[in-house]
Amino acid sequence: xxxxxxxxxxxxxxxxxxxxxxxxxxxxxxxxxxxxxxxxxxxxxxxxxxxxxxxxxxxxxxxxxxxxxxxxxxxxxxxxxxxxxxxxxxxxxxxxxxxxxxxxxxxxxxxxxxxxxxxxxxxxxxxxxxx
Length: 131
Fold this sequence. Notes:
The chain has 131 residues and is mostly beta strands. The relative contact order is 0.23. A hairpin with a 3-residue loop joins strand 6 and strand 7. The termini are far apart. The radius of gyration is 19 Å and the shape is elongated. The protein has 1 helix and 7 strands; from the N terminus they run H-E-E-E-E-E-E-E.
Protein backbone atom coordinates (compact mmCIF):
# COMPACT_ATOMS: atom_id res chain seq x y z
CA UNK A 1 0.00 0.00 0.00
CA UNK A 2 2.83 2.38 0.84
CA UNK A 3 4.43 1.91 -2.63
CA UNK A 4 1.14 2.70 -4.33
CA UNK A 5 0.68 5.87 -2.27
CA UNK A 6 4.17 7.13 -3.09
CA UNK A 7 3.66 6.45 -6.81
CA UNK A 8 0.29 8.20 -6.75
CA UNK A 9 1.81 11.19 -4.96
CA UNK A 10 4.61 11.43 -7.54
CA UNK A 11 2.08 11.25 -10.39
CA UNK A 12 -0.04 14.02 -8.85
CA UNK A 13 3.02 16.21 -8.32
CA UNK A 14 3.97 15.74 -11.97
CA UNK A 15 0.47 16.81 -13.08
CA UNK A 16 0.61 19.93 -10.92
CA UNK A 17 4.08 20.82 -12.22
CA UNK A 18 2.89 20.60 -15.82
CA UNK A 19 -0.08 22.86 -15.16
CA UNK A 20 -2.87 20.28 -15.34
CA UNK A 21 -4.37 21.55 -12.08
CA UNK A 22 -3.79 25.25 -12.64
CA UNK A 23 -0.39 25.43 -11.02
CA UNK A 24 2.97 25.83 -12.69
CA UNK A 25 1.65 26.09 -16.24
CA UNK A 26 2.89 28.65 -18.74
CA UNK A 27 -0.45 30.50 -18.62
CA UNK A 28 0.39 31.51 -15.05
CA UNK A 29 3.09 33.83 -16.44
CA UNK A 30 0.63 36.01 -18.34
CA UNK A 31 -2.12 38.47 -17.38
CA UNK A 32 -5.74 37.39 -17.79
CA UNK A 33 -8.48 39.48 -19.38
CA UNK A 34 -11.36 39.22 -16.88
CA UNK A 35 -13.86 41.54 -18.59
CA UNK A 36 -14.10 43.53 -21.82
CA UNK A 37 -16.68 45.68 -23.59
CA UNK A 38 -16.99 47.49 -26.90
CA UNK A 39 -19.12 50.60 -27.29
CA UNK A 40 -19.84 52.24 -30.65
CA UNK A 41 -18.42 55.74 -30.96
CA UNK A 42 -18.94 58.36 -33.61
CA UNK A 43 -19.02 57.13 -37.20
CA UNK A 44 -17.33 53.75 -37.60
CA UNK A 45 -15.24 53.99 -34.45
CA UNK A 46 -15.43 52.03 -31.19
CA UNK A 47 -14.27 52.43 -27.61
CA UNK A 48 -12.98 49.39 -25.73
CA UNK A 49 -12.80 48.93 -21.97
CA UNK A 50 -10.79 46.01 -20.62
CA UNK A 51 -10.11 44.72 -17.12
CA UNK A 52 -6.90 42.74 -16.62
CA UNK A 53 -5.69 40.69 -13.68
CA UNK A 54 -1.96 40.00 -13.52
CA UNK A 55 -0.14 37.50 -11.32
CA UNK A 56 2.64 40.09 -11.06
CA UNK A 57 2.19 43.45 -9.40
CA UNK A 58 5.64 44.95 -8.96
CA UNK A 59 7.59 47.63 -10.77
CA UNK A 60 9.75 44.94 -12.42
CA UNK A 61 7.05 42.47 -13.56
CA UNK A 62 3.58 43.54 -14.64
CA UNK A 63 0.96 43.59 -17.39
CA UNK A 64 2.20 46.22 -19.83
CA UNK A 65 -0.39 46.14 -22.60
CA UNK A 66 -3.50 44.72 -24.20
CA UNK A 67 -4.78 44.23 -27.70
CA UNK A 68 -7.86 43.35 -29.69
CA UNK A 69 -7.64 40.56 -32.25
CA UNK A 70 -9.94 39.81 -35.16
CA UNK A 71 -10.24 36.55 -37.09
CA UNK A 72 -6.96 34.74 -37.75
CA UNK A 73 -5.36 36.78 -34.93
CA UNK A 74 -5.38 39.98 -36.99
CA UNK A 75 -4.40 42.85 -34.67
CA UNK A 76 -7.09 45.56 -34.66
CA UNK A 77 -5.67 47.73 -31.87
CA UNK A 78 -2.65 47.34 -29.60
CA UNK A 79 -2.05 49.45 -26.50
CA UNK A 80 0.92 49.87 -24.21
CA UNK A 81 0.69 50.56 -20.48
CA UNK A 82 3.59 52.66 -19.27
CA UNK A 83 3.72 51.72 -15.58
CA UNK A 84 3.16 48.90 -13.10
CA UNK A 85 -0.18 48.27 -11.40
CA UNK A 86 1.02 47.15 -7.97
CA UNK A 87 -1.66 49.16 -6.18
CA UNK A 88 -4.58 48.16 -8.43
CA UNK A 89 -5.29 44.53 -9.18
CA UNK A 90 -7.29 43.87 -11.26
CA UNK A 91 -7.14 47.13 -13.23
CA UNK A 92 -9.31 48.63 -15.99
CA UNK A 93 -8.25 50.72 -18.98
CA UNK A 94 -10.06 52.16 -22.02
CA UNK A 95 -9.08 53.22 -25.51
CA UNK A 96 -11.23 54.66 -28.27
CA UNK A 97 -11.38 55.97 -31.78
CA UNK A 98 -10.38 52.77 -33.57
CA UNK A 99 -12.25 51.09 -36.43
CA UNK A 100 -13.23 47.42 -36.61
CA UNK A 101 -13.65 46.22 -40.21
CA UNK A 102 -17.32 45.76 -41.20
CA UNK A 103 -17.05 42.00 -41.80
CA UNK A 104 -15.86 41.24 -38.23
CA UNK A 105 -18.66 40.20 -35.85
CA UNK A 106 -16.59 39.33 -32.76
CA UNK A 107 -13.16 40.21 -31.39
CA UNK A 108 -10.81 38.76 -28.80
CA UNK A 109 -9.08 40.75 -26.05
CA UNK A 110 -5.61 39.62 -24.91
CA UNK A 111 -3.09 40.92 -22.35
CA UNK A 112 0.69 41.19 -22.41
CA UNK A 113 3.26 40.76 -19.65
CA UNK A 114 6.43 42.89 -19.77
CA UNK A 115 8.65 39.79 -19.69
CA UNK A 116 6.56 36.91 -21.09
CA UNK A 117 4.81 38.74 -23.93
CA UNK A 118 1.28 38.08 -25.20
CA UNK A 119 -0.81 35.32 -23.63
CA UNK A 120 -2.96 34.35 -20.71
CA UNK A 121 -6.73 34.21 -20.48
CA UNK A 122 -8.47 35.92 -23.36
CA UNK A 123 -12.06 37.05 -23.75
CA UNK A 124 -14.08 37.10 -26.98
CA UNK A 125 -16.94 39.60 -27.26
CA UNK A 126 -19.44 40.40 -30.03
CA UNK A 127 -19.09 43.64 -31.98
CA UNK A 128 -22.20 45.71 -31.16
CA UNK A 129 -24.69 46.05 -34.03
CA UNK A 130 -23.32 43.11 -36.03
CA UNK A 131 -24.86 39.65 -36.27
